[in-house]
């Protein structure tokens, strides 16, 4: 068991240890004075009534708060000595500082003005007393102010914060307006930005002796400077905002950045709904609940009536007041951590420093404190506040809101909260009144025809007017339409100056440009465009050429004359080749007398005439009785049939279109055609997007066209579309303009037409000034209308015009004689030619027959005789498939009637049918005369076509069949 009693030695040791600890505590308690004093030197303004500065009030407020809470200095009472001086009296400031040092202050606060502050700083350096500042002061690099601490953010870091914000906003140009020369030092990092970043800065200075900034604002407005950085106090900023509103510079096109940290102290209520962009910085950490409660308590204690026309909010804790409050607390915290420090009276004339001053200054620079302005820490060498956070605040419709944060370590971080759920794009345009510039052009913007006098927006109608009404209904804004004074769309001259609607937007005389305004690269650099509401291209407007009649021989139109010649040559070539190949091939020859084994006579069907007939029959898709037998000739025939199939099919397919559609004979069909000639003059609308297209184009064809137009601007360039239409109708002129406009014109004027296709592809957009917040909202509304089909409905409403289309449909009616008359002429010509050929053949044959045939009439016993002609089967219309009753195949004799019967001569006829041909067959290939009774001399050739003539007694004729076969004959006599 452990002994709980202490030994005598242990008890004695514990006793002495406790005694020593008590003695040290007593010494420490006695070393810390019960009362310490701090001094404050503050400027006062000249006037009948001296006003207490916010820094002085915050100084007292902080001391009272420390003494009331007893958290920082539980056993010490903090007192203060306040001295007031004139703002520029540095001698008085030095005297007041010496008076306070004689009272034994541990630190001096203020004054703020540079000359007075430097005087006090010199005394504090000499007597080694900390000097605390809460306003910006230029601190040179070689500064040896050891006893110096400044709670205002370091100017170099603040300049970086402004530069980061400018880069985040993607400003390429900006204007810096400073109040005094110190502003150039505070903003040196931003001013040096052009050499390191792609930013163009313009530096201006506010008037020194007056608060009237209207001349400066007017100059900036005339120079179209919309992004401005003001480096001035919040008092001056309030005056600038009031005067800018009277100058019409508090619109959504302007963006102001104020470097003052007291933007929340300005009355911004008149500017909440102006749409102006206003951004600033704030170091007061009002998001902290403890800070907010202290600020609210401060405001309640300062319930004073507001000053009229000051533009400031009374009772708001400014940055200087908050920094003074934090300065008092950081000194108190440092004093708490500096034990055994005595304070004694110091005399300026003795130059005897405070022996604890250096130690106390080190405690101040090493201290850390989370105050009203955030984290407090100092550079141990310079005494400047470097590690701090800045809130980025922006003016919204609900007031000043925090949208981001900047810190020296993390840089800029924009944390703007998205709009709350339920808000839509109409919020920022609701109840806004916009100025809309436009130009008269059908069917986009037109003057409404009415018997009554119309005023305002009711004077206009058209596609763009209806589109503007729909946008106003969706976005909730009102508008006023103003026609552009010079009546031009907008182009840039050689000096870079714009005219027309583009100039109206650049100079902010209009908020929107609602017209058929083409989106181009050059315009996009000076204004903003919405998404295109109508797509189109450039084309050519020209007079509709006279229609070309098809004519009687229009059936030849489906193919060019060259093709017809090629077809004819192909026909002749194939026919000749077929004839030659048929002669060479042994399989195209056949035996002329197959019934006579000893005959060596062969024949060929493909004579020259038959070859041509075969080609014609195939070409006409009718065929012929001639068929090739050899493989070579069949190949020729098959290829020819394939050729004719394609030709006839193509011809048939095109024939309908050429006979039913009326064709136009236009002298130009494209931009290349119009560029290659000079007879037809052409041009564009002056100062329009089409003119800029040709002027900037690097395509050789378009360069040539622009050279032609620019060489004669008086005749080639027209003032408006209407002037161009009249020129096209009255002269040989072609207008080059947008395809949508041409479509509208050609639907209503049947004498005009579009020539060729589109030269390029572009779009019409709604123009807004550069950086306008309306562009995105209008774009979203246009896309919504496009998806709903509303834009298509509006286009059909204003473009519909069917008069010319109905006329074109009426012209394509039934075909008449003018379309197909030529084929009747060909038919009649063929008939006439065939009659004349038949007559010629008859006469020719008649003469030949008269020479060959001689008919004799011989009488034997008073009996009549008939001449019988024996011919080869190949010459007597025989066919291989015709066989008589006796089996006679290829060779037979035909009983031919005399050409001209004479007296006493009778024709051999069938007694049942006189028209039936009568044939004498030679059965089994025997000689004909063997079937005839009686003695008949042997046949002999008399030299005339191999014909042997016989006479047959009429009385001896036996039975004749219906096939005309002679079955029996009594006798035959050779003639």
TrEMBL record:
<keyword id="KW-0325">Glycoprotein</keyword>
<feature type="site" description="Crucial to convey clamshell closure to channel opening">
    <location>
        <position position="668"/>
    </location>
</feature>
<feature type="domain" description="Ionotropic glutamate receptor C-terminal">
    <location>
        <begin position="433"/>
        <end position="801"/>
    </location>
</feature>
<feature type="transmembrane region" description="Helical">
    <location>
        <begin position="563"/>
        <end position="582"/>
    </location>
</feature>
<feature type="disulfide bond">
    <location>
        <begin position="98"/>
        <end position="348"/>
    </location>
</feature>
<keyword id="KW-0813">Transport</keyword>
<keyword id="KW-1133">Transmembrane helix</keyword>
<dbReference type="InterPro" id="IPR001508">
    <property type="entry name" value="Iono_Glu_rcpt_met"/>
</dbReference>
<keyword id="KW-0675">Receptor</keyword>
<feature type="compositionally biased region" description="Basic and acidic residues">
    <location>
        <begin position="883"/>
        <end position="893"/>
    </location>
</feature>
<keyword id="KW-0406">Ion transport</keyword>
<dbReference type="GO" id="GO:0015276">
    <property type="term" value="F:ligand-gated monoatomic ion channel activity"/>
</dbReference>
<dbReference type="InterPro" id="IPR015683">
    <property type="entry name" value="Ionotropic_Glu_rcpt"/>
</dbReference>
<feature type="transmembrane region" description="Helical">
    <location>
        <begin position="639"/>
        <end position="661"/>
    </location>
</feature>
<dbReference type="Pfam" id="PF01094">
    <property type="entry name" value="ANF_receptor"/>
</dbReference>
<dbReference type="GO" id="GO:0045211">
    <property type="term" value="C:postsynaptic membrane"/>
</dbReference>
<feature type="site" description="Interaction with the cone snail toxin Con-ikot-ikot">
    <location>
        <position position="695"/>
    </location>
</feature>
<feature type="binding site">
    <location>
        <position position="738"/>
    </location>
    <ligand>
        <name>L-glutamate</name>
    </ligand>
</feature>
<comment type="function">
    <text>Ionotropic glutamate receptor that functions as a cation-permeable ligand-gated ion channel, gated by L-glutamate and the glutamatergic agonist kainic acid. L-glutamate acts as an excitatory neurotransmitter at many synapses in the central nervous system. Binding of the excitatory neurotransmitter L-glutamate induces a conformation change, leading to the opening of the cation channel, and thereby converts the chemical signal to an electrical impulse. The receptor then desensitizes rapidly and enters a transient inactive state, characterized by the presence of bound agonist.</text>
</comment>
<keyword id="KW-0770">Synapse</keyword>
<keyword id="KW-0407">Ion channel</keyword>
<dbReference type="InterPro" id="IPR001320">
    <property type="entry name" value="Iontro_rcpt_C"/>
</dbReference>
<feature type="binding site">
    <location>
        <position position="516"/>
    </location>
    <ligand>
        <name>L-glutamate</name>
    </ligand>
</feature>
<comment type="function">
    <text>Independent of its ionotropic glutamate receptor activity, acts as a thermoreceptor conferring sensitivity to cold temperatures. Functions in dorsal root ganglion neurons.</text>
</comment>
<feature type="binding site">
    <location>
        <position position="690"/>
    </location>
    <ligand>
        <name>L-glutamate</name>
    </ligand>
</feature>
<feature type="region of interest" description="Disordered">
    <location>
        <begin position="875"/>
        <end position="908"/>
    </location>
</feature>
<dbReference type="InterPro" id="IPR028082">
    <property type="entry name" value="Peripla_BP_I"/>
</dbReference>
<keyword id="KW-0812">Transmembrane</keyword>
<keyword id="KW-1071">Ligand-gated ion channel</keyword>
<keyword id="KW-0628">Postsynaptic cell membrane</keyword>
<dbReference type="Pfam" id="PF10613">
    <property type="entry name" value="Lig_chan-Glu_bd"/>
</dbReference>
<keyword id="KW-1015">Disulfide bond</keyword>
<feature type="domain" description="Ionotropic glutamate receptor L-glutamate and glycine-binding">
    <location>
        <begin position="443"/>
        <end position="507"/>
    </location>
</feature>
<dbReference type="InterPro" id="IPR019594">
    <property type="entry name" value="Glu/Gly-bd"/>
</dbReference>
<keyword id="KW-0472">Membrane</keyword>
<feature type="transmembrane region" description="Helical">
    <location>
        <begin position="823"/>
        <end position="844"/>
    </location>
</feature>
<comment type="subunit">
    <text>Homotetramer and heterotetramer with GRIK5. Tetramers may be formed by the dimerization of dimers.</text>
</comment>
<dbReference type="GO" id="GO:0038023">
    <property type="term" value="F:signaling receptor activity"/>
</dbReference>
<feature type="binding site">
    <location>
        <position position="518"/>
    </location>
    <ligand>
        <name>L-glutamate</name>
    </ligand>
</feature>
<keyword id="KW-1003">Cell membrane</keyword>
<protein>
    <recommendedName>
        <fullName>Glutamate receptor</fullName>
    </recommendedName>
</protein>
<dbReference type="InterPro" id="IPR001828">
    <property type="entry name" value="ANF_lig-bd_rcpt"/>
</dbReference>
């Amino acid at each position: 068991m452990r002994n709980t009693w202490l030994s005598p030695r242990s008890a004695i040791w514990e006793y002495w240890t406790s005694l020593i600890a008590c003695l040290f505590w007593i010494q420490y308690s006695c070393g810390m004075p019960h009362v310490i004093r701090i001094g404050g030197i503050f400027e006062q303004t000249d006037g009948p009534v001296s006003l207490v500065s916010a820094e002085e009030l915050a100084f007292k407020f902080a001391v009272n708060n420390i003494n009331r809470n007893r958290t920082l200095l539980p056993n010490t009472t903090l007192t203060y000595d306040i001295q007031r001086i004139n703002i520029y009296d540095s001698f008085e400031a030095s005297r007041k500082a010496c008076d306070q040092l004689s009272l034994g202050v541990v630190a001096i606060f203020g004054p703020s003005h540079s000359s007075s502050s430097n005087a006090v700083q010199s005394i504090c350096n000499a007597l080694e007393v900390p000097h605390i500042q809460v306003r910006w002061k230029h601190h040179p690099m070689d500064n040896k102010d050891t006893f110096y601490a400044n709670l205002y953010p370091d100017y170099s870091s603040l300049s970086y914060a402004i530069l980061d914000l400018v880069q985040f906003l993607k400003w390429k140009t900006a204007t810096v307006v400073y109040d005094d020369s110190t502003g150039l030092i505070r903003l040196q990092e931003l001013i040096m930005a052009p050499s390191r970043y792609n930013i163009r800065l313009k530096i201006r200075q506010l008037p020194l002796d007056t608060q009237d900034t209207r001349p400066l604002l007017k100059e900036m407005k005339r120079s179209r400077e919309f992004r401005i950085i003001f480096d001035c106090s919040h008092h001056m900023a309030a005056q600038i905002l009031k005067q800018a509103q009277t100058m019409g510079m508090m619109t959504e096109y302007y963006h102001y950045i104020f470097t003052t940290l007291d933007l929340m102290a300005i009355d911004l209520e008149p500017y909440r709904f102006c749409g102006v962009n206003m951004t600033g910085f704030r170091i007061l950490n009002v998001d902290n609940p403890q800070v907010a409660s202290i600020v609210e308590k401060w405001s309640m204690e300062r319930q004073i009536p507001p000053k009229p026309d000051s533009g400031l909010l009374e009772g708001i804790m400014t940055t200087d007041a908050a920094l003074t409050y934090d300065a008092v607390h950081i000194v108190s915290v440092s004093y708490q951590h500096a034990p055994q420090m005595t304070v004694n009276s110091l005399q300026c004339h003795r130059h005897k420093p405070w022996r604890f001053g250096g130690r106390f200054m080190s405690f101040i620079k090493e201290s850390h404190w989370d105050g009203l302005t955030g984290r407090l820490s100092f550079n141990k060498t310079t005494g400047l506040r470097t590690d701090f956070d800045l809130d980025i605040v922006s003016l919204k419709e609900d007031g000043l809101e925090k949208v981001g944060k900047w810190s020296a370590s993390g840089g800029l971080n924009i944390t703007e909260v998205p709009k709350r759920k339920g808000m839509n794009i109409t919020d920022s345009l609701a109840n806004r009144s916009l100025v809309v510039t436009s130009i008269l052009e059908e069917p986009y913007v037109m003057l409404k025809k009415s018997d009554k006098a119309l005023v305002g927006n009711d004077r206009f109608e058209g596609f763009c007017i209806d589109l503007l009404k729909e946008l106003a209904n969706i976005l909730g804004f009102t508008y006023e339409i103003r026609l552009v004074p010079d009546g031009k769309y907008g182009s840039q001259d050689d000096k870079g100056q714009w005219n027309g609607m583009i100039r109206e937007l650049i100079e902010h005389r209009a908020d929107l440009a609602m017209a058929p305004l083409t989106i181009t690269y050059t315009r996009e650099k000076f204004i903003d465009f919405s998404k295109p509401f109508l797509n189109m291209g450039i084309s050519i407007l020209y007079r509709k050429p006279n229609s070309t009649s098809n004519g009687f021989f229009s059936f030849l139109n489906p193919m060019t004359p060259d093709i017809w010649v090629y077809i004819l040559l192909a026909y002749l070539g194939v026919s000749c080749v077929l004839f030659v190949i048929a002669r060479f091939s042994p399989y195209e020859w056949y035996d002329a007398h197959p019934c006579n084994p000893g005959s060596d006579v062969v024949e060929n069907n493909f004579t020259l005439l038959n070859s041509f007939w075969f080609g014609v029959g195939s070409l006409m898709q009718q065929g012929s009785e001639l068929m090739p037998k050899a493989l070579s000739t069949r190949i020729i025939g098959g290829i020819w049939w394939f050729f004719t199939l394609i030709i006839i099919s193509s011809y048939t397919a095109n024939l309908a279109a050429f006979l039913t559609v009326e064709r136009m004979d236009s002298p130009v069909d494209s931009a290349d055609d119009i560029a290659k000639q000079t007879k037809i003059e052409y041009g564009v609308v002056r100062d329009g997007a089409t003119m800029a297209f040709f002027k900037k184009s690097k395509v050789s064809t378009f360069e040539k066209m622009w050279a032609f137009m620019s060489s004669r601007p008086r005749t080639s360039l027209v003032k408006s579309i209407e002037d161009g239409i009249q020129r096209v109708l009255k002269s040989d002129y072609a207008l080059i303009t947008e395809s949508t406009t041409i479509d509208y014109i050609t639907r209503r004027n049947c004498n005009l037409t579009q020539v060729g296709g589109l030269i390029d592809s572009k779009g019409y957009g709604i123009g807004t000034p550069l950086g306008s917040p309306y562009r995105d909202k209008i774009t979203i509304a246009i896309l919504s209308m496009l998806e709903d089909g509303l834009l298509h409905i509006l286009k059909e409403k204003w473009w519909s015009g069917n008069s010319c289309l109905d006329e074109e449909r009426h012209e394509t009616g039934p075909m008449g004689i003018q379309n197909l008359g030529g084929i009747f002429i060909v038919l009649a010509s063929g008939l006439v030619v065939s009659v004349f050929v038949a007559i010629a053949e008859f006469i020719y044959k008649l003469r030949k027959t008269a020479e060959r045939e001689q008919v004799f009439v011989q009488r034997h016993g008073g009996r009549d005789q008939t001449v019988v002609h024996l011919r080869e089967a190949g010459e007597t219309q025989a066919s291989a498939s015709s066989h008589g009753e006796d089996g006679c195949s290829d060779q037979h004799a035909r009983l031919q009637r005399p050409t001209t019967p004479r007296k006493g001569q009778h024709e051999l006829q069938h007694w049942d049918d006189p028209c039936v041909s009568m044939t004498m067959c030679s059965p089994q290939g025997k000689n004909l005369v063997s079937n005839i009774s009686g003695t008949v001399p042997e046949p002999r050739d008399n030299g005339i076509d191999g014909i042997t003539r016989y006479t047959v007694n009429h009385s001896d004729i036996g039975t004749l069949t219906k096939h005309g076969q002679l079955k029996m004959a009594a006798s035959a006599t050779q003639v």
